[in-house]
Amino acid sequence: MEGRREEIRKGPWKAEEDEVLINHVKKYGPRDWSSIRSKGLLQRTGKSCRLRWVNKLRPNLKNGCKFSLEEERVVIELQAQFGNKWARIATYLPGRTDNDVKNFWSSRQKRLARILQNSATPSSSSNSKSHRATWEVSTFNDVPTLLAPKLSSSMDEESSSKDHSCSSSNREKAGTIKMVPVPALVNPKLLHFDAHSVLTPFENNPCTDSQLQIPFPDITQTQHDLTFSPESQELLAGLEDPHFFDVFGPVDASQLSNEVPLPVEEPFLKPMRSFRNAVKDENDNLVNPDAFFEDFPTDMFDHIEPLPSPSDW
DNA sequence: AAGAATCGCAACCGCGAGACA
DNA sequence: ATGTCTCGCGGTTGCGATTCT
Predict the structure, then answer these.
(1) Nearest nucleotide (CA of A131 to C1')
(2) Strand C footprint nucleotides (protein C-beta < 7 Å)
């Protein structure tokens, strides 16, 4: 059997373990996770190694950066379209892992549930968190649809040590939205350039690197007509819907696909410019396009599927 | 200042799919 | 065709940090 030489280590990773894992990936690539243990490099399961790499050590991750408004919106829209396919949704959010998306969604669902509960039982709104929840709703309502320096609760000011690389001040300065879905980088056929898109130089910031500044596509008609945030709209709509609590259950994408057209269009697929290793010819075409992917795990695109055409939505 | 409630994140677990012998 | 192994995904849990009374 694979292992029985020593106890399998669990729990938080040490810096030394990270180093070993990184070195292994450098040598052999992000594969053969189980060999890390069989070689005696780490007393971790291959599964654990893979998870650590994917969620924390992989290059270009936005570790410690909170979800921007647009990221939140993308998650909301894609969740309605795909259901809880976090890995798939994460491919639209550069620097985000399925775990990030999953955690974000989970937190959001809890928040919504609490807001709803407090709305249903106003007398209970004297507790501390309900105050914050109420504030969040009103804050959402005040937020412009696309440009918002300070937004949801997830955008609360924070200057923790691990957030240093993308301080809120940076986010505020950013002003407009930067987004690029990974699948577009994989399948050029899917690229669909929006003439209105605006490219901006990158800042040397993990939270903005590999992103492009583009106008975010229109969302649903409902959202278009109202100034409410998606979250607030969802809440408001839910209060009138007798089946609102179903929202908190699993979503059947097949059912939703006919009712909730995904407004996130391919157009926010834009070429990524953080091709650290890419070489271009005189016509600015990538000569060694593969070099662009060197920063990514070789398997990270394995599960990416072509996007459905908008007509299928 | 202390305690309770909540948040946010990292990591684990179980299961299914695919590869391979 | 079948069994085993590895990998990847989604759900869940645990815990430190934060916020509020």
Answers:
(1) C20
(2) 5-13, 17-21
What per-residue confidence (pLDDT) applies to A120?
Answer: 62
Round to whole Å and give the CA distance between A179 and A212.
Answer: 6
Q: Which of A21-25, A168-172, A230-234 has the highest mean pLDDT?
A: A21-25
Contact between the CB of A110 and strand B at under 7 Å = yes
Are A180 and A212 a contacting pair, CB within 8 Å? yes
Nucleotide nearest to A66 (CA to C1'): B8
pLDDT at A108: 86
pLDDT of amino acid A259: 39
Protein-to-nucleotide distance from the CA of A106 to the C1' of C13, whole angstroms: 13
Domains and CATH numbers, chain A: 15-57 (1.10.10.60), 69-268 (no CATH)
Q: Give me the pLDDT at residue A170, please.
A: 38
Angle at A126 between CA A121 and CA A127, to 5 degrees: 100
The pTM of the full predicted model, rounded to 2 decimals, is 0.57
Stretch A231-237: mean pLDDT: 52
Largest separation between any pair of C-alpha atoms in chain A: 69
How far does the CA of A36 sit from the C1' of C1, in Å? 32
Report d(CA A22, CA A30) in Å as an integer. Answer: 9
Give the CA A134 to C1' C20 distance in Å: 14
Q: Does residue A39 reach within 7 angstroms of strand B, measured from its CB?
A: no
Rg (CA), chain A: 21
Give yes or no for CB of A129 within 7 Å of strand B: yes
The partner residues of A280 in beta bridges, in order of sequence, read: A286
Quick one: chain A helix, strand, coil %, rounded to 5?
50, 0, 50
